[in-house]
Automatic annotation (TrEMBL):
SUPFAM superfamilies: SGNH hydrolase
GO BP term (any one): lipid catabolic process
Gene3D superfamilies from the UniProt entry: SGNH hydrolase
This protein's record includes keyword Glycoprotein: no
A Pfam family of this chain: Lipase_GDSL
Name of the protein this chain belongs to: GDSL esterase/lipase
Signal peptide annotation: 1-28
Family of this protein: Belongs to the 'GDSL' lipolytic enzyme family.
GO molecular function annotations of the record: hydrolase activity, acting on ester bonds
Keywords linked to the UniProt accession: Hydrolase, Lipid degradation, Lipid metabolism, Signal
Taxon lineage: Eukaryota, Viridiplantae, Streptophyta, Embryophyta, Tracheophyta
Keyword Cell membrane: no
Length: 366
């Protein structure tokens, strides 16, 4: 009898400790990621699509030296933000390991190939478009409610940090995908940008309606300067002017829209990250950041290693720290680290109205 009651006490104690562990996880700041290949950590591995990064040499510098689905030689921007805020990396939402306490860390809903518009990236067929990413976020909240209850789930989402990266594919994989694309026949470029901004605003309002209160919103990089565009449009290494014009129209209007939304909501919910300027710094002066080149991708083929996909048959640079671009479209891990450094501590030239370190300090007092 004494043995039985002793065993019972151990079971109860184990249960109490498990509940405390869940509570601690719930008190820590969750991190949610939405967007495209710049922030996808492997959701597309679980989909029948060509927009995947699950084979070598992707992941060559990742801690496991294996391809994970990240469009990088190593860590991507969400990984590095998690590192900076002292959290473990968020798992892709489609990863079957995302259960139990791991849900309380957050989730990555991003999917390579998607855009603001649902007709962006149609050639990739089976990807998680932004409307579905938001539906998955609702589903996530239902799963967490079953774990810790409705009130704690609401607090977890309200206190969470969110990153969203959209827009580049709406130009590269839609408007400029082919000559005389459907969208380019429908809209002149300035009108298309205004349409994108209006649709993006609806997405961000929906995200706010789902409970998020701190959202980092990145602009597009200098779209005409990536190796893929240099390979197709450049003779002497100059950036493609039409795509540069698109970025120059989109990014300022995005900041204006975020400011207007914050005024509407009465708080600094949306934080603009000027990733265009962050990229421009090392593209215009690679040597100052320790890069040998900001034009030639580490992995690829053709001019600037900018044609086709990065595969096991591609050219591969021996030292990834010398290239600002890993593949024809995506920054190297070293470049991602420079971007995240500015997200964390950058001046208002890079982060508006404040950087992430300031946000973390402010929110820790609440």
């Amino acid at each position: 009898m004494a043995r039985a009651s002793g065993d019972c006490l151990w079971v109860i104690l184990g249960f109490v400790l498990a509940l405390r562990a869940v509570a601690r996880e719930a008190e820590a700041r969750a991190f949610f990621v939405f967007g495209d290949s710049l922030v996808d950590s492997g959701n597309n591995n679980y989909l029948a699509t060509t927009a995947r990064a699950d084979a070598p040499p992707y992941g060559i510098d990742y801690p496991t030296h294996r391809a994970t689905g990240r469009f990088s030689n190593g860590l991507n921007i969400p990984d590095l933000i998690s590192e900076k805020i002292g959290s473990e990396p968020t798992l892709p939402y489609l990863n079957p390991e995302l259960t139990g306490q791991k849900l309380l860390v957050g989730a990555n809903f991003a999917s390579a190939g998607i855009g603001i518009l649902n007709d962006t990236g149609l050639q990739f067929v089976n990807i998680i478009r932004i409307t579905l990413q938001l539906q998955y976020f609702q589903q996530y909240q239902q799963r967490v409610t079953a774990l810790i209850g409705a009130e704690q789930t609401k607090q977890l989402v309200n206190r969470a940090l969110v990153l969203i990266t959209l827009g580049g594919n709406d130009f590269v994989n839609n408007y400029y995908l082919v000559p005389y694309s459907a969208r380019s026949r429908q809209f002149a470029l300035p009108d298309y940008v205004r349409y994108l901004i209006s649709e993006y605003k609806k997405i961000l309002k929906k995200l706010h309606g789902l409970g998020t209160r701190r959202v980092l919103v990145t602009g597009t990089g200098p779209l005409g300067c990536v190796p893929a565009e240099l390979a197709m449009h450049s003779r002497n290494g100059e950036c493609a002017p039409e795509l540069q014009r698109a970025a120059a129209l989109f990014n300022p209007q995005l900041v204006q829209m975020l400011n207007a939304l914050n005024s509407e909501l009465g708080g600094d919910v949306f934080i603009a990250a000027n990733t265009n300027q962050m990229h421009n710094d090392f593209i215009s002066n690679p040597g100052a950041f320790g890069f040998a080149t900001s034009k030639i991708a580490c992995c690829g083929q053709g001019p600037y290693n900018g044609l086709g996909l990065c595969t096991g048959l591609s050219n591969l640079c021996p030292n990834r720290n010398l290239n600002a671009f890993w593949d024809p479209f995506h920054p190297s891990e070293k470049a991602n680290r420079l971007i995240v450094k500015q997200i964390m501590t950058g001046t208002t030239q890079y982060m508006s109205p404040m950087n992430l370190s300031t946000i973390m300090a402010l929110d820790s007092k609440v």
